[in-house]
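Shift notes (night). Ran CBS domain-containing protein while the centrifuge was going.
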Amino acid sequence: MTTAKDIMSAGAQWIPAHETLDRAAQMMRDHEVGALPVSANGEQDKMVGIITDRDIVVSCVASGHDPSKVTAGELCEGTPRWIDATADVEAVLDEMQSHRIRRLPVIENKRLIGMISEADLALHLSDEQVAGWAERVYSRA
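Came back to this:
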């Protein structure tokens, strides 16, 4: 059985909720990622959300806010979604599809160990699985 751990990209990085969005953008650039899980201040095992490069651009910069003054904690909203490392691929796809999300943190023993992105799905799943996922995540319905 293929698991979340089998298809994830390892080494996901946290950003503390108190860090600014310009720092988040720098971390995304340095680690070549498009999303960062946001941790409760000082608690790297408590996820309070996730921010993406698109969130920074659309919700901060395009809205006229200064990314050096807005924090990651202020930008992330909603219930953070994640998947256990031992979950099978169908559970991964279901979680991503049902919440229409493109990136999913992977947790093992209450610790962040990786992230699953569209690229990971494309590398590890069949064309049919990826097409089905994309149809459900990107559809306007």
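The first helix runs from residue 4 to 7. The mean pLDDT is 91.
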